[in-house]
């Protein structure tokens, strides 16, 4: 089915999406993929970043599907999500080096290099224990995303699963990790999750 054919019946697809229809989600995903990735690339100059933003946008769509207004413009809704993520990504890119430095300085509050290394190793071991709280498949998907820097689409293709399954798995994994970290860590859960997601 071509994108123009899909969009001619977009409201019907949106109504099905709201009800949790994965086929409708996939049709909308395919219909908007190229145009939204191109839109993001105009600002980010990187297809990898653009694809990640597109995938994140549709993760938001799926997770918030019950709150979508079927009578409003679905296209405008999507472009608003993507625009906001582009702005966030641009800020992240400009501040990434500074952010890494700040996170490490908070997590490793020592000046001695030997102590720094010991504490950093302890943090890595703690993160490793946190990852053991995930199921084997959740852990595999999470590590492919965070450690190997694979896009959701690449993970789905390698594992033979849907992009939506990848997105749902990563979302569940982050919630599981946060719960474990909040119960067991002397460092804030947000801080350690940032370390995990930045692959420090």
From TrEMBL:
Keyword Transcription: yes
Domain RNA polymerase sigma-70 region span(s) in chain numbering: 28-94
Domain (RNA polymerase sigma factor 70 region 4 type) ranges: 127-168
Protein name, entry field: RNA polymerase sigma-70 factor
UniProt record similarity statement: Belongs to the sigma-70 factor family. ECF subfamily.
CDD domains documented for this protein: Sigma70_r4 (cd06171)
GO molecular function, one term: DNA binding
Keywords: Sigma factor, Transcription, Transcription regulation
InterPro entries in the cross-refs: RNA_pol_sigma-70-like, RNA_pol_sigma-70_dom, RNA_pol_sigma70_bacteroid, RNA_pol_sigma70_r2, RNA_pol_sigma70_r4_t2, RNA_pol_sigma_r2, RNA_pol_sigma_r3/r4-like, WH-like_DNA-bd_sf
Highest taxon of source: Bacteria
GO biological process: DNA-templated transcription initiation
């Amino acid at each position: 089915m071509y994108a123009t054919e899909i969009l001619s019946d977009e409201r019907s697809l949106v109504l099905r999406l709201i009800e949790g229809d994965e086929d409708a989600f996939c049709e909308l995903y395919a219909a908007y993929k190229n145009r939204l990735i191109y839109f993001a690339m105009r600002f980010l100059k990187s297809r990898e970043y653009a694809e990640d933003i597109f995938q994140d946008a549709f993760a938001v769509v799926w997770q918030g599907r019950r709150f979508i207004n079927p009578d409003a413009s679905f296209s405008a809704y999507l472009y608003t999500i993507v625009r906001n993520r582009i702005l966030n990504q641009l800020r992240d890119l400009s501040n990434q080096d500074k952010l890494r430095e700040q996170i490490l300085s908070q997590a490793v509050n020592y000046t001695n290099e030997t102590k720094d290394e010991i504490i950093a190793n302890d943090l890595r071991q703690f993160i490793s224990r946190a990852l053991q709280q995930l199921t084997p498949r959740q852990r595999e998907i999470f590590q492919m995303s965070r450690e190997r820097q694979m896009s959701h689409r690449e993970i789905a293709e390698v594992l033979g699963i849907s992009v939506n399954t990848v997105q749902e798995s990563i979302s569940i994994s982050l919630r599981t990790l946060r719960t474990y970290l909040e119960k067991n860590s002397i460092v804030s859960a947000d801080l350690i999750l940032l370390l995990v997601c930045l692959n420090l």
